[in-house]
Write a structure and sequence with these properties.
The protein folds into two domains: 111 residues; 126 residues, no CATH class. It is α+β, with helices and mostly antiparallel strands. The protein is built from four helices and 20 strands. β7 and β8 form a beta hairpin.
């Protein structure tokens, strides 16, 4: 393979991936509790380095490197701004930690505190998924829909003057191991353990997405320029090869 085409093609693919990640962030800039994705990049080794044959090629080419390579996207766990709603089942976490919800028998973490009661009185996510909110013992929370609730800063829910449940507030030891599972749900790597968290819980507030649309649009334009530059380099090299083969290499 011609080395310049190798590098330019790598640049096109990497920036196309980065463009998709940024576009998804922009699309979710108004999603409650959404955490932006990070398009992580790494230096790509040359083909000879991947095969363990770096000493069998031109050292001047090996020093150029193999261009960029997309790594697995990360999750930006920084908090978003609070939005007051006045609705008693809207909760926001001030500090580190996540709510725990049960979906199809699996426990997920989320910063989306937009909850509701279903017909059975179970506290669930209000996004239509039906995922049940878990208490501090990782059990579903059931409330009396006919009585108002009062929420303490530690997540204790009171009805009729009695504490009826405590929100499960958990954190992870390594935030880089969190994985997006769709919507606002996050999961941990297999075998990882959740730890108890102690954020302040605010009732009548929601945490907005931590995506800054202006920053994302700036990054998107920069990515599009880099993608176009790499695509132009492929075209230039193709035209150069065309002249080399059809003009310079022509036998008169």
């Amino acid at each position: 393979m011609i080395y310049g085409l190798y590098l330019s093609a790598s640049g096109v693919l990497t920036n196309s991936y980065r463009q998709d990640v940024i576009a998804n962030n922009i699309a979710n800039s108004e999603t409650i509790g959404f955490k932006k994705d990070l398009a992580l990049l790494q230096q790509r080794p040359t083909a000879a380095q991947e095969l363990g044959r770096a000493n069998q090629t031109d050292p001047s080419l090996e020093n150029i490197g193999g261009g960029l390579l997309a790594a697995q996207s990360g999750v930006d766990t920084r908090p978003g701004d609070f939005e007051p709603t006045g609705y008693s089942y809207d909760f926001a976490l001030e500090g580190n930690g996540y709510f725990a919800v049960n979906g199809n028998g699996k426990t997920y973490l989320t910063r989306n505190g937009q909850f509701m009661l279903d017909r059975q009185g179970h506290l669930t996510l209000a996004d239509g998924s039906g995922h049940e909110v878990l208490d501090n013992k990782q059990k579903p929370i059931t409330l009396d829909s006919t009585q108002p609730i009062t929420l303490a800063n530690d997540g204790t829910i009171t009805q009729g003057g009695k504490a009826v449940a405590t929100l499960g507030l958990f954190d992870v030891t390594d935030p880089t191991k969190l994985k997006k599972e769709g919507g606002t749900l996050l999961s941990q790597s297999p075998g990882a353990q959740m730890i108890t968290a102690t954020p302040v819980v605010r009732s009548g507030y929601l945490e907005r997405s931590n995506v800054d649309p202006a920053t994302e649009l700036t990054d998107l334009m920069d990515t599009q320029r880099q993608l176009q530059a790499n695509a132009n380099m492929i075209q230039i090299q193709d035209e150069t090869l065309d002249k080399l083969v059809n003009d310079i290499g022509k036998v008169s």
